[in-house]
Amino acid sequence: LPNAPHRTWEERDRSHLLHPFLPDSQQRRVVMVEGEGCVLRDATGREYLDATAGMWLCQVGHGRTEIAEAAARQMSRLEYSTAFWDFTHDRAISLAERLVGLAHPATGRAFFTSGGSEGTETALRMARNFHHRRGAPDRTWVLTRTRAYHGAGYASGELSDFPAYTSGFGPQPGHVHRLTAPYPYAHARSGADGPEDVTEFCLRELEEAIHRIGPHRIAALIGEPVLALGGMVAPPTDYWPRVAELLRAHGILLIMDEVVTAFGRTGSWYSAGQMGVQPDLTVLSKGLTSGYFPLGAVLLTRRIADVLGAGDGFPVGHTYSAHPTGCAVAEANLDIIEREHLLDAAGAIGARLATALAPLEALPLVGEVRQHGLMIGVEVVADKALGRPLPHGTYALADLIRDRTGVLVRGGPRSLTLAPPLVMTPEQADHVGTALFDVLSGHP
Ligand code: PLP
């Protein structure tokens, strides 16, 4: 039998699971079976220190029975009901009120999705549909940025700067224009762009793009307040306010993809306020439930919600939109973040991690260690003077750190990235620093 007990988890996995981004030639599997706080345990009993919070989502740490109990209570009472048409339920109403209440005052309503990709796809539909209904159907172009990640759907995949999603899959939706996202480390070392201030460079590019495409043909710009998959890169402080001002002047909507940055990751409920902007649409997921249930949301300003709610209403929905169990889990998660003051953690544990990681900057392999709250990027370089990345990225290095030290960090094309749970202890933060230092300095 294929699942006979004598077969190992690894063998059974290889027979029956197709993983994203895993070639069949790789035999090895890490079979996780349980977790508590920042520690995960695999099927062999080995422990790992999770400095990535899963996929950058587990704000409150693993194994919180309080959330499991909230899910069980909700499932016993009303496991599922829809929020299509005139149906609704108490959990969706309560969570929408709470999310809107935490956002900037122009925010009016929330629309629920099953995750981040569905959220960015929905925000894109909302932006185009908003203009269409206001008599500007030609506003279809979307501005996106280099190093962005907005999801794995056809539209969200094209918005992402992620060639794997656009090559080999036939035609793309189109009407997407990509601008340079500020990456101060790379910008300072790119001879082509000269010494121009990175914000000036990006703003000039944005202005030129608006002029070339025509402002009356552009629906929105989408961006992450801080690039996540792009290497945990925060822009200079004047970047977002100046971008937002230019967009507003041309009637172009600002979609903030806060799938990673919200719910304490950068020290506040949402990052846009910290960045000095009020987005028209905000996409949320991940930390909304700390990953205990798949759920996402799009927050809309009243101005947009009123247009989309008019007439026959907004004509897009998903079976699992506003899943009652997901909404109950989200509220239990937000309760923990509030009660344990986890918005402060980005500062406190962030500072401890900064100290623990500071010695890395002296190493020949490390170009810089950058940090915004609990989003951390370690730029790994083949050549420190020129800032050239390793030819094959940092994926193998992340595997080596995991295998040697048990610390989980994520590899990428240029950087190692860290985004630990907000409940990481000071001792665990120190351990992350030591583990990375030992491997990156070539200690056996
Ligand atoms: N947006 C950002 C910034 C992300 O990092 C991700 C996923 O990592 C997504 C959107 C897509 O979310 P999901 O994987 O839940 O579809």
From TrEMBL:
> CDD domains, from UniProt?
OAT_like
Q: PROSITE patterns attached here? A: AA_TRANSFER_CLASS_3 (PS00600)
Keywords, in A-Z order? Aminotransferase, Pyridoxal phosphate, Transferase
Molecular function terms from GO: transaminase activity
One Pfam assignment: Aminotran_3
Q: Which SUPFAM superfamilies match?
A: PLP-dependent transferases
Query: Family per UniProt?
Result: Belongs to the class-III pyridoxal-phosphate-dependent aminotransferase family.
The entry's protein name is Aminotransferase class III-fold pyridoxal phosphate-dependent enzyme
